Amino acid sequence: MADRVAALAARKAEARDAGGEAAIERHHARGKMTARERVEYLLDEGSFQELDMLTRHVASGMGLEDSRPYTDGVVTGFGTIDGRKVCVYSQDFTVFGGALGETHGAKIHKIMDLAVATGLPIIGLNDGAGARIQEGVAALNAYGGIFRRNASASGVVPQISVIMGPCAGGAVYSPAMTDFIVMVKETSHMFITGPDVVKTVTGEDVTLEELGGAQTHATKSGVANFVLADEKSALDEVRYLLSFLPSNNLEEPPRILSGDDPSRRCEELLDVLPASSNQPYDMKKVITAVVDDGDFMEVHATYAQQITCGFARIDGYAVGIVANQPQTLAGVLDIDSSEKAARFVRTCDAFNVPIVTFVDVPGFMPGVDQEYGGIIRHGAKLLYAFCEATVPRVSVITRKAYGGAYVVMNSKSIGADFSYAWPSAELAVMGSSGAVEIVHRRDLLAAEDPVALRATLVDEYEERYATPYIAAERGIIDDVIDPAETRAVLVRSLDLLRSKRETLPKRKHGNVPL
After folding, report:
1. Sheet holding 84-91, edge to edge
2. Contact 287/309 with Cβ under 8 angstroms?
3. Other CB atoms closer than 10 Å to residue 296's CB: what's the count?
4. Are strands 122-126 and 74-81 parallel, antiparallel or unpaired?
5. CA–CA separation, 23 vs 32, rounded Å?
6. Which one, 179, 308, 387, 445, has least CB within 10 Å?
7. What H or E segment, with its residue span, contains residue 116?
8. How far apart are CA 294 and CA 120, in angstroms?
């Protein structure tokens, strides 16, 4: 038996260095960790149980007969993060460049099936060159199996993709189907076709970083949810993100108490709004004042910045925050911000994370480009997401709440459980100036001093219509609150809603306006 144990140890040692010392050294020289080093850093120390370590690909010709390294280029298994179980796979760029073949794909299929069967998050550390050309259609078939499992697991267990290197062609679609994508500056790339193909087909000159780098996907395409400076920071971000999520859709996110007083007054909110309603302010100051210890994990922080989405805690319980950002484009809703928020709302709803909205929205973005780009369809995605959501939903209107955009931003009429307003809230079909121009057009044209009359009519409109009190009289909002009491009101409201249950009509699925 001792001889057999020694032989086993030798095989496993070979598997741990499957790419060879030279390949590992080149990998380290690029400032990158190996597949195993990433897993060991991500998971709690000593918790990783590797699976299928001794697998090898089926010899399929085209130069692979004599090269059958253990693991076949992907490390799979399970372990814990902060004591909570997770499943993980990590592609090994030192073995076949991390390219996916039949056996490689089968290992990923197996760990994904295990994650769904046991109700555990699945984390994919992607660092591969796409489909293994030598294995032909078998490699493509393996990708199809991953995609199908991504779809089946969606909304059942959290799926997180970390891009640690190249991710090209069909390989990008699995991360795109997961809940969150984390990228690393300068070393991770995602694209359907590379710069050379783009040059050949379109004549455009573009660098790898410009085409599919982390900053590109964080600011222009919206593909990346988080961008970090290095691999360790990216893996730390994954651990932090998981703290806001349950292990599966039948559980609640963990409660983490920080000692922040739930009834704490937020006196700084009394001075957060500028004197003029046309002046910007930073909505993140409102968010950080209200949540536990000012801790706000923003998602898509550099994309469509006129709306901000992210995770926080209120009285220790995880919440999803969706808030207009008056500091960027006055907080207006457009195509990109609507899609960004809709995706986040649906993610929160899938994983039992209550949603809190802070509303200061002047409307939807006007313009030919927006209309031709489908603002109607894209704006409807956010409307649909809120209407469909069954988690506790609380809305706080801080200032402007105009027109259809107010309705879309989690209003009482589309199912918000509680809707509150600050005394500064302006609930109206449109802004006072625009309303006066339409309603009193003839009077203004006939007036001897239209400027003075306009000013008078605007003041009358604001006093009579653009206040929260008419909405409060009709029960359209539940209360007008002291801004300093916002945190305490949210704590009480969310505490009540923890027992909320909804029974929905039976259906296969809704038809979201994609």
Report:
1. 49-51, 74-81, 84-91, 122-126, 159-163, 180-184, 226-228
2. no
3. 18
4. unpaired
5. 12
6. 445
7. helix 102-118
8. 29
Residues 287, 295 contacting (CB under 8 angstroms): no
Do 381 and 339 meet the contact criterion of CB atoms below 8 Å apart? yes
Examine the residue annotation and report whether 404 is marked as an active-site residue of this protein: yes
Residue tagged active-site, from 15, 214, 405, 466: 405
170 is catalytic: yes
Q: Which amino acid is at 371?
A: E
Q: What are phi and psi of 406, to 5 degrees?
A: -65, -45
Interval 419-446: pLDDT, tens: 999 999 999 877 777 777 787 788 777 7
SS3 at position 297: strand
The single residue listed with the structure tokens 């699925």 is: 509
Cβ(419)–Cβ(412) under 8 Å? yes
Active-site option among 145, 404, 415, 434: 404
The phi, psi pair for 391, rounded to 5°, reads: -70, 165
Does residue 176 carry a pLDDT above 90?
Answer: yes
Q: Which of 119, 136, 145, 170 is catalytic?
A: 170
As a whole number, mean pLDDT of residues 108-115 equals 98
Residue type, 69: P
Written as one string, the DSSP assignment of 337-386 is HHHHHHHHHHHHHHTT--EEEEEEE--BPPSHHHHHHTHHHHHHHHHHHH
Report DSSP letters for 167-211, one per residue.
EEGGGGHHHHHSSEEEEETTT-EEESS-HHHHHHHH-----HHHH
Residue 14 confidence class, pLDDT cut points 50, 70, 90: low
Q: What is the pLDDT of residues 36-79, one digit of tens each?
A: 999 999 999 999 999 998 788 776 555 565 677 877 889 999 99
* Residue 363 one-letter amino acid: G
| 169 counts as catalytic | yes
At 504, is the pLDDT very low, low, confident or very high (cuts 50, 70, 90)? confident
Given 169, 316, 373, 434, which residue is catalytic? Answer: 169
Active site residue 212: no
Contact 149, 109 (CB under 8 A): yes
Q: Are strands 307-314 and 317-324 parallel, antiparallel or unpaired?
A: antiparallel
Q: Name all domains of the chain by residue range, CATH numbers in brackets.
A: 2-242 (3.90.226.10), 267-430+466-497 (3.90.226.10), 432-465 (no CATH)
Beta strand 393-402 with 418-421: parallel, antiparallel or unpaired? parallel
Distance separating alpha carbons of residues 460 and 457, to the nearest angstrom: 5
Look up residue 64 and give its DSSP letter: -
- Give the span between the Cα atoms of 249 and 261, in whole angstroms: 29
